Each structure stands twice: as C-alpha cells, then as structure tokens.
Amino acid sequence: MLRKPREHLNPKHGGAADLRGRLVDNDNRLDMFCDELTDAELVCDVLPMSDKHQETHCELTEQHDIVGELNKKHDVAVKNVRSGMTPSQSCRSRNYFIHQGGVTPILDGRYGLQGTSIPPPIELYHHIFASFRAGIRDESLQIPAQTVQFTAELMRSTSQIATNESARQSPTRNLLNPNKTNSDHILQFQRRSPPMVAAGVICEEKAELGWNGEGSVQGSFSYAQYWTQKDIQREPFFKASCCPSFIVSIAGPWIVVLGAIFPTLPIVQRLTDYLWLGNSRANDDDHALRIARIFQSLRLAIDDLEEYYQKLELLDPPSIQTARYFPDITEYNTGMEIVKFQYLQPLEVDEGCVTFLAKLDEAHEEEQVVVKFVQGYGAEAHRLLASKGKAPALRYCGPISSDSKYWYGSLQMVVMEFLRGQTVAQKYEGSIAEEVRTVVRGAVQILHDRSLVHGDIRLPNIMIVDGTGDEGERMRIIDFDWAGKQGKVRYPLHLSDYIRSTLGVKDYDFITFQHDMQMVDAL
After folding, report:
1. Cross-strand bridge partners of residue 398
2. What is the pLDDT of residue 12?
3. For position 6, what pLDDT does the model report?
4. Omega into 87 within 30° of 0, i.e. cis?
5. Other CB atoms closer than 10 Å to residue 470's CB: what's the count?
6. What whole-number distance in Å separates Cα of residue 54 and Cα of residue 47?
7. Which superkingdom does the taxonomy of this entry point to (predicted)?
C-alpha cells in the first residue's frame, strides 16, 4: 500500500524528521494525514503540472481513454473519502487545509498549499440547480402564506443569540420537511421497489458563525461521506448519477444554500450568498419576502429533485455510468430546428473541463462535434475565419436554454465541427514552423481588417488537421472565447502567468491588435 501526505513535508526540517513528527502527532496513524494511492493513479494526477504546461484544449486520440481515467480517479476519491475523518473533524481549519491539499479535495473554491481545479457551474450537470437559480430571481413566483409566516418566525427565532446548536434544530426541520428529515438532518428520498434512498438536502447547523467550524464546509464533507458510504440502498443512485443534492447551512442569523454533485471528485458551489435572517429593520417586509422566495424556490426544487431520483433509470447490478461525467444538456435550438446530441467523452481529464466530444442525432448523420460551455464567445470572429477555411465550422452559438424555468446566467453553448489532428503544442517541441506562423499571422490579420481581435493565440489553440500537403494550408485556429471587437472585449479575470508575462497585461485589460501580433511572434 502506498500513501501520500496531504501536506508537503518540510525539507528545511528534513523530510524524514517531519514525517516522524506527524506520526507522533497522529497516534502513528498514516490515514490521519495521508491519502492512499493505488496503481490506478497517474503520476500527473499526484504531481499536477504547472500552469505553463497545461493545455486548455486537448484533442482526442484513439489511445487516450479519458473516461477510463475518470473512472479510476473516481474510485480513488471514494476510497479516500471513506477512510477520512468525520465531517466535524474535517471542517476544522487545519484539517480542512490538509485535506484540500490532497489528491481528492472537495472542489469548493478553497485550497491548501496549491490551487485545485476550478470546475464549471454545477447547473450544467443537473438542471435542478438552474431551476433553483431561476426561482430565486422570479419576482412573480407565488409564495404560499404558510412559507411567508414560517420565514417571519425563523427571522424572529434567529435574532436571539444562541448558546447551543439544539436551539436551531426545530426551525430547520420545518424549513426542509418535518416528515422526511431524519435525525442526522438529512432529507432523504425513498424509492420503495427495490428499497433505495438518496440525499435531497443535507443541513448543518451552528449556534453562531465560527462555532465549531464553518457549517457549509461541514455540510460539504457530510455530503461526500453520505454518498460514499457502503450502503446497498444508496449504491444504485450513486453509480447511476452525479448525485445532485442541496446543502443548507444555518449559523446564528445567517443561512446559505449550496448545491453539490459527485462526478469524479465532490463539487460544491454556493447558490446563494450568506443571507441575513436577523429581524433588524422595522418596516422591511420586502427583505422577509425575498427570503421567503428563496425558501419556496428551494422547496419546489426539492420536489423536482425527488421526482428525478424516483424516475432515474438504474442498471442491475449497479455499475458506474459515464453520464455522471457529462452535462445533462443534450440539445440546442437553431431557431429552425431542435438538434439533439449525445456526449462521447470529455476532451480533458481535468475536472475543470468544459469541452466535450459528441455526436449529433441520426437526422444529422451522427456527425461528430465539439460541444463547449463558455461565458462569452466571439462567434463573429469564429464564423469569419471558418468562412476562409481557417477555423472549424461553427454549428451553434447561443443560449443553453430558452426555457425561463432555467437560469444559466451569461453561460452559452458552442457547437462546432470536430477536427482530427494535433495542436501545434502537441506537434512541435520548440518554435513552430515558419510557414505555419505566416499563415497564423495572415489569419489574425483577417480578423484585424474587420476590427476583430482573437486574444488567445497560443500553441494549444492552433491546430494542424490530419492530411497531406502544406502544413500551413492545414492550419486551423480554435478557441474564440475572448474574441470580439477591439475596444470592447477585455481579458478575463485570473489570467495565466504566461499571458501576463508575454504581453505585460493585467486581468480585465482591453485586448488589442498589438497583443494578438505579440502572441503570434511568441509562438
């Protein structure tokens, strides 16, 4: 058996000496500060590559079984969660720090010694979260009087300073469902034939903020522990889905609602901010009604989530289904027709992957396409270069859903032709061939002539498609996420070190013609 410390050993103290000290501090139990490694793991998973070596777009090869690698990572995550501390222990600051530095962190935006993957919004993986987000923004939502009355009661109750957690338990049970919430504050859905259970909501309560750890963090660990327990009544749901659940944390006069899924690693995201429940302003019914709308949206979402688990198709015997690794969005509307598609595999192993290989329906000859989800997209720039044979054909770029029942914010779906070939990052170890650089420069100039910029001319975003003849003629530019009109489009937040150092730009700077050409020169 191999184990890896969740926190790096300190070389200044001597690695062996540091290890011995940790053994003493943890009663000689390696499992208290190490994760178990298996032969299923890859070195690159245990020792992540630095940002400069990671590619944002990975083309498919027949030898690269991405789904198989995701299955292995999922198995390791399950083993490590099962052997970890209790949720109440894990949420303590030092233990949380150590856990987040291990190979199976909870992807919640917090990290230990080094950053973790930033996953896509969970509403892409299950529509129930998009439905909840739509509900809390819908001012026309009908709120039952009983929900408004309960909200007022809860606000009065939480305004009193609590000295123990039991004082909060009764109001919280009423918030969820008094008939289905068990003693562990988990609202479970039951499917009778065969008998199975699923966690709809996991609730964590603290007397006040900062009381024995942060409630939303403890709730995240409770979620992971619930779904990974060896339980024949949970296993069918766990293997057949990404395990969508809500997490509710109440601490004093504060409440937050989170959503969670478990594709390879547990992903937990806040669907609301911490909301103030204190009754601190006279003549402020609007605030109470806003909180009541959130509670009503949560109840409606819980009902829909229960229906999902009741109707979920299961395999006998249970086995991991690859649908857990894909969004549940499987169609797009061109305005003329609805086109359905089926995911084949992600184009990256990383949990932050938002790009997938898919095939269209029979009506479209099962064409292979790339489906990606982005916050913005330079469709005009993409179509312009595609018309010149310098980019893949763009099949669709637009809203994820036109149904007002779901809210995806500014997220868009992009569907394009799938190209077989290699990125120049894969093809060349050093600088690219000058003939390719010349063609890239010409393609960028086509954009500039229309006052358009690309913004991300890097090696992973230039492809040489399979074929014979001149490589320059087979060059294609991909990834138009930042493209648009010069003077209007800006760099996103959290730029890579490579772009900062190459161009001397900062987050949210305007993208210019000069920046594009600097990147071409740096290829």
Report:
1. 413
2. 38
3. 62
4. no
5. 12
6. 13
7. Eukaryota
Side by side, which strands form the sheet with 355-360? 331-333, 338-346, 355-360, 368-374, 412-417, 394-399
DSSP state of 393: P
Contact 128, 301 (CB under 8 A): yes
Query: With b meaning 16 or more CB within 10 Å and e meaning fewer, what string describes 169-178?
Result: bebbbebbbe
**DSSP labels for 370-414?**
EEEEES---HHHHHHHHHTTSSPPEEEEEES---TT---TT-EEE
Name every residue whose Cβ is closer than 8 Å to that of residue 445 and which is 6 or more positions away in sequence.
none
Q: Across the strands, what pairs with 247?
A: 202, 258
What's residue 261's pLDDT?
99
DSSP structure class, residue 271: S
Amino acid 45: pLDDT:
45
Taking alpha carbons only, the member of 459, 457, 458, 456 closest to residue 426 is 459
Q: pLDDT value at position 58?
A: 43
Position 168 scores a pLDDT of: 56
Distance CA 435, CA 241 (A): 48
Distance between CA atoms of residues 180 and 368, nearest Å:
45
- Please name the amino acid found at residue 71: N
Cα 75 off chain centre by? 19
- Distance, in Å, from the CA atom of 499 to the CA atom of 492, rounded to the nearest integer, reads 11
What is the predicted pLDDT for the residue at 208?
85
Strand partners, 355: 372
Q: State which CATH number among 3.30.230.10, 3.30.420.40, 1.10.510.10, 3.30.1020.10 fits the domain covering 324-522.
A: 1.10.510.10
| DSSP secondary structure of 278-313 | ---STT-HHHHHHHHHHHHHHHHHHHHHHHHHHH--
Q: Where in the chain is the domain with CATH 1.10.510.10?
A: 324-522
Q: Which residues pair with 462 in a beta bridge?
A: 477
Regions of the chain with pLDDT less than 70: 1, 6-29, 31-33, 36-64, 165-184
Q: How is residue 31 annotated by DSSP?
A: G
CA distance 21 to 5: 13
**Angstrom distance (rounded) from CA 309 to CA 237:** 8
Give the span between the Cα atoms of 163 and 336, in whole angstroms: 61
User: Measured at the alpha carbon of residue 423, what is the angle toward residues 494 and 504, in degrees to the nearest 5?
Assistant: 35
Q: For the beta carbon of residue 403, count every other beta carbon within 10 angstroms.
A: 13
